[in-house]
Amino acid sequence: MKATPLIGLEVHVELETKSKMFCGCPADHFGKEPNTQTCPVCLGLPGALPVPNEKAIESCIKIGLALNCGINSLSKFDRKQYFYPDLAKGYQISQYDEPFCSDGFVLLDSGKKIGIERVHMEEDTGKLQHVVLEGKKVTLVDFNRSGVPLVEIVSRPDMSSSSEAKEYLKKIHEIVRSIGVSSADMEKGQMRLEPTVNVYLEDESEKHYTPLSEIKNINSFNFASQAIDFEITRQIEEFVKTGIEKSATNKTTRGYDAVKKMTFLQRTKEEAKDYRYFPEPDIPPFVIENEMVDKLRSGLPQLPDQVTADLIQMGIEPKYVKIICNNPEALAIIREFGENKEIEINKLASLLANKKIDIKGDIKGEYQKATQTGNTNVGELKEIVEKIIADNPNLVAEYKKGKTGVSGFFVGQAMKETKGQADPRTLNKIISELLNR
Amino acid sequence: MKQLHELTIKEVLDGYTNKDFTCVDLVSHFQKRIEKYNHKLNIYLALNENVLAEAAAIDNEIAEKGITRPLLGIPFAVKDNFLTLGIETTASSNILKGYKPQYESTVIEKIKTAGAIILGKTNMDSFAHGSSTETSDFGATLNPWNVEKLPGGSSGGSAAAIAAQLATVALGSETAGSIRQPAAWCGVTGLKPTYGRASRFGIIAMGSSLDSPGPIGRSVEDCALITEVISGKDPKDATTSPSPVEKYSENLYASDLRGIRIGIVKEYLLPDMREDVKNLILDAADKLRLLGATVDEISLMDPKYAIGVYTVIQRSEVSSNLARFDGIRFGHGRSVLCEETKRRIMLGTYTLSAGYYDAFYKKAQAVRTKIVDEFKEIFKTYDAVIGAVSPGPALSVGASKNQPMFGEMEDILVEPSSIAGLTSVGLPCGFVDSLPIGLQITANQLKEGTAIKIADCFQRHTNYQVFPDLDKTT
Prior knowledge:
The complex is a heterodimer of chains A (437) and B (474).
Chain A: E1 2-14, H1 54-66, E2 70-71, E3 74-75, E4 78-81, E5 91-94, E6 101-107, E7 113-123, E8 127-133, E9 136-142, E10 149-155, H2 162-178, E11 191-202, E12 207-209, E13 213-215, H3 221-242, E14 252-257, E15 262-268, E16 278-279, E17 286-287, H4 290-299, H5 304-313, H6 318-325, H7 328-337, H8 345-353, H9 363-371, H10 378-391, H11 393-400, H12 407-417, H13 424-435
Parallel strand pairs in A: 13-14
Antiparallel strand pairs in A: 1-10, 1-11, 2-6, 3-17, 4-5, 4-16, 6-7, 7-10, 8-9, 11-12, 11-13, 14-15
Helix pairs in contact in A: 2-3, 5-6, 6-8, 10-12, 10-13, 12-13
Chain B: H1 9-17, H2 23-41, E1 44-47, H3 51-65, E2 75-79, H4 106-113, E3 117-122, H5 156-163, E4 169-174, H6 180-186, E5 189-192, E6 212-217, H7 220-230, E7 261-265, H8 275-290, E8 294-298, H9 303-321, H10 339-351, H11 358-381, E9 384-388, H12 406-410, H13 415-419, E10 423-432, E11 435-443, H14 448-460, H15 470-473
Parallel strand pairs in B: 2-3, 2-4, 7-8, 7-9
Antiparallel strand pairs in B: 1-3, 4-6, 5-6, 5-10, 9-11, 10-11
Helix pairs in contact in B: 2-3, 5-6, 9-10, 9-11
């Protein structure tokens, strides 16, 4: 029986806008004193109203454009309703059926296209902290994160292995970073991953799909990859045992235990929430003008795939290209010296990639110093030095008396003789050796 | 000579200018009246403890600079769903009992900037769910004309405060009828601005796509002066209109209504409406004709459809808006919510549920669009449409009990205009059974000026601005 995994991914990216999605509080919440960055709006106080952050919407559209999406001319926010203590209003403002961006793709290195179903805008929730306070186990709520702008990128189930999923995730990560909307720092929770997995099984006579499972809130590419692999194996085994196929009602939600390296059941579809979406009445619908989209499109920097192609075209080896692409400073240097005839660009790339030169220093000087190999032919240099020694017996005598400073004269003469081509270290060694004979 | 509680905004400001009385005099006068009558009528839930100090500061300002602000020293009664910094705000619900807001609503900020003084917070239907004040967790307000009658609602406390002359002017809010209907039942004037004309920021939300804060006062003029102050784009409310605010007061004192075209809606003269009520509306139409307007009978969709649309949309929004009172914050659990509130949350939750959304919410929105279009068409020909505010005069205390659709039946004639987000003035046009009857004059979105002009001219040429003698009625 042939097994083809069908993997889709939901990726949440926190935007690094100055203020939150619907109020003026700072969006940068990481490591801040709890509940110091809140206001009536993000606390969901009575009477408070959301006002959308235009910069965040622009960032969302930029992500959509970078992922080859169409930008919908009509869009709106909806309320997604559920109860949880970290959700101040009892609903999350999100987008249901009219997201800002839809139908894009990411191109894997193999040339395979991974479809993007939609890219939409929503707000983050607060955070629960389970702590012991005065001997009592309590749960505290920190609303600093409440209302931070969040973009959700939903792929189609086009990936068929964990390695494809990982490549897709890395590409999303690179793209989001390269367009400057988020650092997408996984450790800070700025990028969160939710794979949805099932398996298509096929032999000559039969075709089967295993039930879908969605794996919630993973914060590393490796964990995502491990979770997917575990899930593929688990689903095939389960199918062989039970023969249960995918249906409209048997999707499950699972978590991933990174220590045990396995997924575990969180809830079944029967227990799934009905979010009772309806259009957010506090925010009028959006008409996105073509001019705005064109302006955002023309403001986008070159995207990673294009940059990669350009660097390869310049003659840089692929092993360096990857590293350079992920380092904006190094990339800027390569761009600056790309046309410079005195610099061999692949050599510069190798130096940058291997951190052999100081990225903040004088690049041209650093490059020359680092690439200066000079003449290291000991025989040839010895001959030249012997000649200078023979021509200057007085200075040799002074050296022997202890005026070792005169060795500089010999270095200078030898350099002159070799037109500066002698490798300084080799030359120094030879001179001191011959003078101390 | 008028007594202090009988003065309009303009008369108060003139009194200050002429040094006839001080702001402290006026405020103390109202305090005495409140002391005397509030326990009989249950109008104020909370009083502003700093009011005398604020009045004294205003007297100093007047002495130094004269009257430089449009509402300087004007005493307001404020519906209890407006957040007032430091003054308990409950929306008449036990779940917010003791809640002192950390911030001020935009409308309150605006009237305070204009110099207003807040006397206190007025009773309302709990979370504005009703048209009687009977759903208030703090007991019903009684109608100052007849304490066996209801004041209407949900802004019943504010309307009663004007009828009982326990404030110069008041603020209410209307989702569908909550300004016009209690104003009608109490025989005072109310103005519902266009949806988005005045900010909803800091007003405890009921039906977010419908809620409109507005004034209740002794006259159209007072309502116009307040609307001028509270209107305008608010950066904190994304649904407010950016169009500039007109000087509504320039529409006052029109000598006649020549050139104005008015439609009287046939369907709003309901078949089971009392003849005497119907006749008052027809008399009002004749009066408008006498003033020079043309008044034609026109036809609109049967208002019963508006009830269906309104009920579904409003309950849906309510179920969502009240989710923040989750029992974790604000000090009280959800079990303290009253029956009506629970009923609305349940109905709204149902209409938004998977599988029912299309049949209810979506269909309601489609009909809403039809109602909007119908009004658009009418306003191509007419400047305003008129009709009764309510099918009859104030009903008796207890009438809303065990009547889940009580509000909707009483608001049948105002719901279509609310659904379409229109502006409308409700003002007295006569009496039946010694109880006032209200006329509504509804104009297109952002045409407050037109509605004000017609209503003001009608009011100046009729004599229905009368007030009950509380010593006889209470």
